[in-house]
Amino acid sequence: MEIVIWSHVFMAAFYILYFAVIITTVFVVILDNRNPVKTMAWILVLFFLPVAGLVFYLFFGRSTRREHLISRKGYARLTKRPMAEYQTQVSLHAPIEKQTLMNFFSHVNGALPFGGNRTTVYIDGASMLADLIKELYRAKHHIHVEFYIFEDDAVGRLVRDVLIDKAREGVKVRVLHDDVGCWKVSHAFYEQMLCEGIEVMSFLKVRFPQFTGKVNYRNHRKIVVIDGKVGFVGGMNLAERYVKGVPWGVWRDTHAKLEGKVVYGLQTAFLTDWYAMDRTLFTSAEYFPKTDVRGNVVAQIVTSDPVGEWRDIMQGLMMAICSARRYFYVQTPYFLPDEEVKTALQTAALAGVDVRIMLPKKADTWLIHKASLSYLAEMMKAGVKIYLYRKGFIHSKLMVSDDEFSTIGSTNMDFRSFEHNFEANAFFYDKDTASALKEIFLADQRDCMLLSLKVWDKRSWKSKVTESVVRLLSPLL
């Protein structure tokens, strides 16, 4: 009898303690003053999936936005040389309508716009990889490599071997990879580079049992800097699928090689991330060498992260969408826009701007793809044209507007990229780059199906219900 009584007492105490933890967590979520939609999503998860919801929140929900990864003093030292080069510029010939956007990024993000750059755009992994290896072999002083995924496969091993060759020649090589993005990669893969004198670090390590909210904040950037003069940025990681494709078709992505002073922006982004993990700050002139005029492209490297006060890239994209007068084209593998971006796209379309969004017909992540599909009907009702890419999987993060503005980078049009990830995009303010990216979009459009709202509304109720249910979790995905 006593055993039964003590059993009931124990269970009652457990439930009281457990629900106290749940209620406390809900209050923490509310007091964090997040986006109301996101707050409600977490509250629903915590109440209706109490055990799983609490675990999910502990791993993915806690905010570390006030965590300072680099001091103001350190950042000022890091940008001193790029600032000096920026101030020597006579003028930047950017469209008047886009100078406000350029000034916004300069003020909020510290992104310095530079003229006199040259851009080479890649739309497949093979051509990018071939050019990357060629530029790596030309390195004389240093190579900085930063990828979300650096896979131990044919592509990853090829790049690794090139880096080892250069390290043996005396070139200083540093590699930064995301810890979660490379979870499946064995330590032996990176240890081989370490043994050859290459400095290798993982970004925000996550290890059991100290499994913390750091898993929610990932470094999604794809950056390569060679001798401070040549840089690569875009959507491609170092993995075989970016070259060989997926079982249902090609892997369509967009990447860019940059030559000119805009590479200072990529260098600053890499060295900031390196300092955040290693607490070593590199500011010497050898990392920011004098660079001649290479072309006529005006460009900025803009970064975003969950640490800062503002959502830099998201807010900039809102400005770009709202300032579009003729067209605004978007390629993104995932479409889970926050309310502000969604409203901006709809408003532009309702004002007569030709807004087009290109998504994969079949994606690599079922859950996120289903959530993405739930937004399409309301976009089409506002006049936004939706194109579904049928040739394979489109992973490209490309945007172009009015033949005068364009961007390539790692930022997807979703909550995670806007709020949780460390991202990097190149923003361009010239007609030639915009025209080239517009032609790429229109060429891809021929491999797409244009959705009709009338036909889309006739899809099965099962699909509609699944999409709507998954959408409830979209702020958390």
From TrEMBL:
Q: Which SMART domains match?
A: PLDc
Question: Which Gene Ontology MF annotations are present?
Answer: cardiolipin synthase activity
Subcellular location, record wording: Cell membrane
Provide the catalytic activity annotation.
Answer: 2 a 1,2-diacyl-sn-glycero-3-phospho-(1'-sn-glycerol) = a cardiolipin + glycerol
Residues at the active site: 220, 222, 227, 395, 397, 402
Q: Does the keyword Transit peptide apply?
A: no
List, in alphabetical order, the GO biological process terms annotated in this UniProt record.
cardiolipin biosynthetic process
Provide the primary localization. Answer: membrane
Superkingdom of the source species: Bacteria
List the record's Gene Ontology CC terms alphabetically: plasma membrane
Chain ranges of the PLD phosphodiesterase domain: 215-242, 390-417
- EC number assigned by the record: 2.7.8.-
The protein's topology relative to the membrane is:
Multi-pass membrane protein
Task: Provide the top EC class.
Answer: transferase
Which UniProt keyword terms apply here? Cell membrane, Lipid biosynthesis, Lipid metabolism, Membrane, Phospholipid biosynthesis, Phospholipid metabolism, Repeat, Transferase, Transmembrane, Transmembrane helix
* Pfam families assigned to the protein according to its UniProt record, in alphabetical order: PLDc_2, PLDc_N
**Entry keyword annotation includes Lipid metabolism:** yes
Q: Which intervals of the chain form a coiled coil?
A: none
What family does the Swiss-Prot or TrEMBL record give for this protein?
Belongs to the phospholipase D family. Cardiolipin synthase subfamily.
Biological function: Catalyzes the reversible phosphatidyl group transfer from one phosphatidylglycerol molecule to another to form cardiolipin (CL) (diphosphatidylglycerol) and glycerol.
The protein's name: Cardiolipin synthase
- Tell me the organism: Candidatus Phocaeicola excrementipullorum
